[in-house]
DNA sequence: CTGAAAGCGCTTACAG
DNA sequence: CTGAAAGCGCTTACAG
């Protein structure tokens, strides 16, 4: 009976939890000594430390995060706010994979991820304020970067660990992690031009997000550099828009011989339209996507895509944020350290060539 | 300058946070009075309460969750452990949507969701132990219910708020929320038989999960009841398996005229195989899925599916878990209340008929 | 290397 | 209706 020593608490409801005082009692030392021992800090002899650790294990002691947080220790949580409806999130393969990647790394450091869904950008900023004000999180990840994003100055002002997902640019002095869309675009266009395509379309998602504009520019620039014609086709959000955009392209008198879609979902929707219209992929139309996924991989024909693994993206983001939090804790001078952590990190995109473009008989 | 009164703390690092003591000072009352006031408890006059609230707002006071937790208040967090690799999670549309639904409801109650990815069932159980031991969470959601799941007795023994996602059955005395797969199966089979199909295949996912076996049984039973022939085809996990299974079915001498897939991802992969083989949907083969999604909706032809919205599922689960946590806090006698909360709740599935089965010329 | 004390921010009885 | 005190579980100086 390991519980023999636990006296019945008043109220007799839940069992009283074991604390460092219990351990100290047993070990015949003071609670302070236990604290030093279990935290691996100097101040107790090796023998005492060993004895204390044994007792702690024996009593099944678990440190109280609340008590620790109260004395200024990290709360071991990072936050992420999403200003989009749950329905939209659910439809996006990227979200689940990104979160999974974040979790994977955070878990190993015993950090938890806290998420909140809000209605507006104002509510998002207010959430950051409250989270940091209450010391609910040690840092935050900010997603869906927009142009002239009001969240950036708000987070700068808070002066707390925050990592922007997206860029480069528009993230002010905040550290950021992003996939280099310019490089990704170059990879895609070069590949298609190399196959002989001279008229290439880009079916673009919501213009609101920063990367959309960035891809637009890089796409047009690169096409021009290579002497090809770039056709921009706005599609708005999701599969519906992509299908309509594809139909629009087919209706043109001078239709392209290759289409690059902004996401796997859009590429699949577009491919369906092509199939319906009796257009063979890749023989009559090459198809590529900025986003890879299991669906892109198993589709027939499999879709050529940029291998920005959302899972990997999440892992890199989590690693980076933990670094920032760590730097923040040991910062000697607030501003110097802050500046040092404000660096960006790019994730290199890779082109994964598959059947949807391979061997295309372009032009 | 609302900060005029804040004295510079030692160390001059972070600004000292404002506490109820600051408010008490200003209001000329004691900290206890402030506590009563801000928590809406009796014990202070209306006038005093109003004055205190004003000052709290003025000083931008935020309660410290750590301090509150230390005195026994709920920590406002629920946990979910996932014993699957991040990659697998990322590929599954269900995960992101379910989490989004959970979040949506939890956020409104100021609860946060804590997730952890682990390697094994043992690690999962250990995580529950630590979470509750440390009072890191007020309750947990358990997903991926299996037959004779060792997590069920482990959670029963912990005696803390826990909700099982899945069932019915195999969740012991724990409360559960599940989609009635038997009903879903009936809806699907009845629909197909009603269209004239007499030989119907079911392409099933991983046998490990509880619902797979449940669907198998319900499928065979219902086919028999209606005088149709049910063909079971195991596919293992994901799109790859579904494609192979579909090819297997086509190769049979007596191929079915309709296929029901376990997920949207599998249905899409299977449909691709059908298209490749020149088989028209729904004219030559009807296709249906146990799982709806944006992809199933926008696919051409759109896939008939069971409308268990994963988002909605998440919402129901969160609501239920919050009820359980609440009941647990006010429980008069540990066991009586525990029993009262141990009820299950089914989410009614709906059949959404789309082009992939409509107007099929069966048999 | 060890002990005694004060404090983190809040809540909860218990007196007045 | 209000005040003073003790306590939640831990950590951090500061003496010995």
UniProtKB/TrEMBL annotation, chains A, B:
Transmembrane segments: none annotated. SMART domains: HTH_LACI (SM00354). Coiled coil: none annotated. Pfam families: LacI, Peripla_BP_3. GO terms for molecular function: DNA-binding transcription factor activity; transcription cis-regulatory region binding. CDD domains: HTH_LacI, PBP1_LacI_sugar_binding-like. Residues 18-72 form the HTH lacI-type domain. InterPro entries: HTH_LacI (IPR000843), LacI/GalR-like_sensor (IPR046335), Lambda_DNA-bd_dom_sf (IPR010982), Peripla_BP_I (IPR028082). PROSITE patterns: HTH_LACI_1, HTH_LACI_2. Keywords: DNA-binding, Transcription, Transcription regulation. PANTHER family: ALANINE RACEMASE (PTHR30146:SF155), LACI-RELATED TRANSCRIPTIONAL REPRESSOR (PTHR30146). This is LacI family transcriptional regulator.
């Amino acid at each position: 009976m390991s519980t023999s020593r636990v006296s019945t608490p008043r109220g007799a409801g839940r069992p009283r939890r074991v604390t460092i005082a219990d351990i100290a009692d047993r070990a015949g030392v003071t609670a302070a000594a236990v604290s030093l021992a279990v935290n691996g800090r100097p101040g107790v002899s090796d023998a005492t430390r060993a004895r204390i650790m044994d007792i702690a294990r024996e009593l099944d002691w678990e440190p109280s995060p609340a008590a620790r947080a109260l004395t200024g220790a990290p709360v071991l949580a990072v936050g992420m706010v999403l200003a989009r409806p749950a329905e939209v999130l659910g439809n996006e393969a990227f979200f689940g994979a990104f979160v999974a990647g974040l979790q994977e790394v955070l878990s190993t450091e015993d950090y938890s991820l806290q998420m909140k869904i809000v209605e507006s950008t104002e509510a998002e900023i207010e959430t950051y304020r409250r989270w940091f004000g209450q010391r609910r999180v040690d840092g935050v990840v900010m997603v869906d970067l927009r142009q002239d994003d009001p969240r950036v100055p708000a987070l700068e002002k808070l002066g707390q660990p925050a990592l922007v997902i997206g860029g480069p640019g528009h993230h002010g002095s905040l550290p950021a992690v992003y996939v280099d869309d310019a490089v990704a675009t170059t990879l895609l266009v070069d590949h298609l031009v190399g196959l002989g395509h001279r008229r290439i379309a880009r079916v673009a998602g919501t213009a609101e997000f920063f990367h959309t504009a960035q891809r637009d520019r890089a796409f047009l620039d690169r096409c021009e550099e290579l002497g090809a014609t770039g056709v921009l086709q706005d599609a708005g959000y999701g599969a519906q828009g992509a299908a309509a955009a594809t139909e629009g392209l087919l209706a043109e008198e001078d239709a392209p011989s290759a289409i690059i879609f902004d996401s796997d979902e859009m590429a699949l929707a577009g491919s369906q339209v092509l199939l319906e219209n009796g257009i063979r992929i890749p023989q009559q139309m090459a198809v590529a996507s900025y986003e890879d996924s299991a669906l892109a991989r198993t589709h027939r024909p499999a879709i050529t895509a940029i291998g920005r693994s959302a899972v990997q993206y999440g892992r890199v983001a989590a690693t980076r944020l933990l670094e920032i939090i760590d730097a923040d804790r040991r910062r000697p001078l607030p501003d110097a350290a802050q500046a040092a952590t404000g660096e960006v990190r790019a994730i290199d995109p890779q082109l994964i060539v598959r059947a949807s473009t391979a061997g295309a008989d372009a032009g």
